[in-house]
Amino acid sequence: MTQSIVIQVGQCGNQIGCRFWDLALKEHASVNRKGIYDDALKSFFRNEGGDENRKTIADLKARAILIDMEEGVVNEIMKGKLRNVFDRRQLITDVSGSGNNWAVGHMVYGQQHRESILENVRKEAESCDSLQCFFILHSMGGGTGSGLGTSVLRLVAEEYPDVYRFVTAVYPSFDDDVITSPYNTMLATNQLTNYANCVLPIENQCLTNIIERHAKMNKQSEKKTGKPFDNMNDIVANLLLNLTSSSRFEGSLNVDLNEITMNLVPFPKLHYILSSMAPIYSTKGIGPRRLDEIFTDAFTSLNHLVDCDPLRNLYLASGLLIRGNVQLSDVRRNIEKLQMKCKFVPWNKDGWKIGLCSVAPVDHRYSLLSLSNNTCIAHIHHYTDHGEMSINEFDLANESLKSLIEEYDDLNTRQWIVPERLKIVL
Ligand SMILES: Nc1nc2c(ncn2[C@@H]2O[C@H](COP(=O)(O)OP(=O)(O)OP(=O)(O)O)[C@@H](O)[C@H]2O)c(=O)[nH]1
Ligand SMILES: [Mg+2]
Q1: Which atom of ligand 1 is nearest to the CA of 70?
Q2: E strands within 69-130?
Q3: How far apart are CA 361 and CA 85, in angstroms?
Q4: Residue ranges of the domains in the chain?
Q5: Residue-wise pLDDT tens digits, 77-93
Q6: Is residue 285 very low, low, confident or very high in pLDDT (cuts 50, 70, 90)?
Q7: Which residue is closest in CA terms to ligand 1's atom 4?
Q8: Which ligand places an atom closest to the C-alpha of 101?
């Protein structure tokens, strides 16, 4: 089996990462009842001081690097229940944060911390005997995650070109009041396009909607215990658990992580994968009861982690990662039904990649993670659906903004020659 390293950057990246480690430990504990250090655990955990032959668990440490340019979030983690899962060597912090500024994270901290990041990655990589993937987790709205996170992405792309790079990128919601969010997002997206193998965009608005709907359905106000983002982050953590289940557990049709990029990304830059899940909540007892329901649920917009509609657009490829005791014939039957709704590009009409992992998520009988490479991700139609609006308007607006900036800039740098006032000789 192969191993992966998780690099969590900034507040959002670290908070999501911690929900992932917490739930991953629960999942392994529910399967690995004898408590042995098996290949499944080895894929994401080191066994510090363990006896390689006896496979007894000594001291489990996450294959992770925690990076933030302020100390609050990481210090909090090191005081919490996961404190023993990381050692101090795995942390890289600074004091003042990036102030929601991509340039500070990318240019300033990216340069300052380059060596210590490389050193940390090297140490983690050396502890793996077959390193396959980096999972980089960060938000797009703040400065550290978007700026330094993408600087780390570029660094590992250059230093470890053969190791796959999956990025989980959290996009800001409509009510995000940080004025620099859209700029950070755009600058970071440029880096993701150039250096990632696969990006899983997540919209915070979708996570909020899912949590609110869940609360309403259960006639309760949002769970007040835990940290503010915990419920939302659990959804992202479950996405990562489902995505990596094949590389952690046995299955009759296991999909290796490299197969995901190979099958879902036909053009290197078009690697933005839309994800949706069923069940979408990890809560016991809430979720589809019949197998076929996971297919219908995962294909409704309510379970999407990005607000767009793949059924109205063109699929380049689709991946269905199923967990639990499910037969291939059941999957084929459901794909036949889905095929009538999904429009594929003509050269990949049967572009379904199926994964079957026998271990279901904790508290559920089965689950489905649907991964779609679909043209709707560029959801420009919110604009172009209205009247005569054409896509060229964006280019025109961009050009006009650029020349406006140049004109102001020109005034800023111009050497003014002020004619001396005429003196009146009396
Ligand atoms: N889903 C989710 N979103 C978060 C979380 N924490 C922050 N965000 C979102 O992330 C964006 C802000 O980015 P942060 O991750 O806080 O910023 P940072 O990377 O720490 O960068 P600086 O604080 O500027 O140094 C906003 O859109 C927040 O709504 C989290 O735990 N979960
Ligand atoms: Mg921060």
Answers
A1: 25
A2: 91-93
A3: 21
A4: 3-196
A5: 999 999 999 999 999 99
A6: low
A7: 12
A8: 1
Alpha-carbon distance of 238 to 277, in angstroms, equals 9
Q: Does the structure show a pLDDT above 90 at 297?
A: yes
Strand partners of residue 135:
6, 166
Are the C-beta atoms of residues 374 and 306 closer than 8 Å to each other? no
Q: How far is CA 206 from the centre of its chain?
A: 14
Q: Where are the alpha helices (H) located in 218-303, listed in sequence order? A: 230-248, 257-264, 291-298
Distance, CA of 281 to CA of 283 (rounded, Å)? 5
Distance CA 384, CA 115 (A): 46
Q: 337-388: per-residue pLDDT in tens? A: 999 999 999 999 889 999 999 999 998 999 999 999 999 988 777 778 888 8
Residue 109 is classified by DSSP as I
What pLDDT shows up at residue 237? 97
Query: pLDDT tens digits, residue range 198-254?
Result: 999 999 999 999 999 888 877 665 455 567 799 999 999 999 999 999 888 877 888
Mapped onto helix, strand or coil, the DSSP state of residue 324 is: strand
Angle at 388 between CA 386 and CA 393, to 5 degrees: 95
Report the DSSP beta bridge partners of residue 133.
4, 164
Q: Which two tokens stand for residue 217?
A: 């359905």
Peptide bond into 279 cis (omega under 30): yes
- Mean pLDDT is lowest, of 42-46, 171-175, 282-286, for 282-286
The tokens for 410 are 């020109």
Residues in the chain: 426
Q: Ligand 1 atom 10: the closest Cα is on which residue?
A: 139
Residue 239 has which token pair? 């996405």
**343-344 and 198-203 beta bridge pairing:** unpaired
Distances (CA, A) of 77 to 219, 262, 421: 31, 35, 68
Average model confidence (pLDDT) across the chain: 91
- Around ligand 1, the residues with Cβ closer than 6 Å are 10-12, 15-16, 69, 97-100, 139, 141-145, 170, 172, 176, 204, 207, 229, 232-233
Cβ atoms of residues 171 and 208 within 8 Å = no
DSSP 160-185: -TTSEEEEEEEEPPTT---TTHHHHH
C-alpha span between 264 and 319 (Å, rounded) = 7
Task: Give the distance (Å) from ligand 1 centre to CA of residue 100.
Answer: 9
Q: 3-196 is classed in which CATH architecture?
A: 3-Layer(aba) Sandwich (3.40)
* Alpha helices, DSSP H, located in 218-256: 230-248
Q: Which two tokens stand for residue 149?
A: 């996170």
